[in-house]
């Protein structure tokens, strides 16, 4: 597996476009999210010039994982769309905190295609570590994320220091929560 990261203008030529198709395959086609995805690409208002992407590729060079890092000093998903997950607290706004979103670790070219096992795959652990390392290079000491409740088990099992920012809620029929993940000094 190879990991690449950067903004949409600093990623290798064509990778950002491939990433937007991959995100559509995972989040819209496999997971069934109701998102506006014209032309089969998944992008939203948080895909800006200051957004940093972490992209995993398999041995054949196909994307098999992704993550998006957003500074909390600008608008971001949790703060703008899901602030109720913070149980009344103000969304963080600090150069020390980045948001991790659009995290996926599934090889959409593998058959049978299923996103269900993405959170327990070996790709997920490597991608999460790489995402935290990338966030650390950007000045983060922690990340915050909106995640399905099942991510807690992955984080505990893999030894990440994480805790809830508020109680879980059911949104769109799925239990989700806001989660703090500390960046270990060994990743900086």
UniProtKB/TrEMBL annotation:
Enzyme class: transferase
Keywords of the record: Acyltransferase, Autoinducer synthesis, Quorum sensing, S-adenosyl-L-methionine, Transferase
InterPro entries: Acyl_CoA_acyltransferase, Autoind_synthase
EC numbers on record: 2.3.1.184
Alphabetical GO biological process terms: quorum sensing; signal transduction
Reaction(s) the record says it catalyses: a fatty acyl-[ACP] + S-adenosyl-L-methionine = an N-acyl-L-homoserine lactone + S-methyl-5'-thioadenosine + holo-[ACP] + H(+)
Gene Ontology molecular function, alphabetical: N-acyl homoserine lactone synthase activity
Pfam families, A to Z: Autoind_synth (PF00765)
Database matches in SUPFAM superfamilies: Acyl-CoA N-acyltransferases (Nat) (SSF55729)
The keyword Aminoacyl-tRNA synthetase belongs to this UniProt entry's keyword annotation: no
Family listed: Belongs to the autoinducer synthase family.
Protein name: Acyl-homoserine-lactone synthase
Originating species: Halothiobacillus neapolitanus (strain ATCC 23641 / DSM 15147 / CIP 104769 / NCIMB 8539 / c2)
Taxonomic classification: Bacteria, Pseudomonadati, Pseudomonadota, Gammaproteobacteria, Chromatiales
């Amino acid at each position: 597996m190879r990991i690449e990261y950067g903004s949409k203008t600093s990623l290798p030529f064509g990778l950002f476009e491939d990433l937007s198709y991959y995100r559509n395959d995972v989040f819209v086609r496999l997971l069934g999210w109701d998102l506006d995805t014209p032309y089969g690409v998944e992008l939203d208002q948080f895909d800006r010039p200051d957004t940093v992407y972490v992209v995993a590729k398999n041995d054949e060079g196909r994307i098999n994982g992704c993550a998006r890092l957003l500074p909390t000093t600008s608008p971001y998903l949790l703060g703008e769309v899901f602030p109720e997950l913070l149980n009344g607290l103000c969304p963080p706004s600090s150069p020390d905190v980045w948001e991790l979103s659009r995290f996926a670790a599934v090889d959409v070219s593998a058959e049978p295609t299923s996103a269900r096992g993405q959170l327990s795959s070996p790709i997920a652990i490597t991608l999460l570590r790489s995402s935290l390392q990338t966030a650390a290079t950007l000045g983060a000491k922690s990340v915050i994320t909106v995640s399905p409740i099942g991510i807690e088990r992955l984080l505990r099992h893999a030894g990440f220091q994480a805790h809830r920012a508020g109680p879980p809620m059911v949104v769109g029929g799925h239990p989700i929560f806001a989660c703090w993940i500390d960046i270990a000094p060994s990743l900086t």
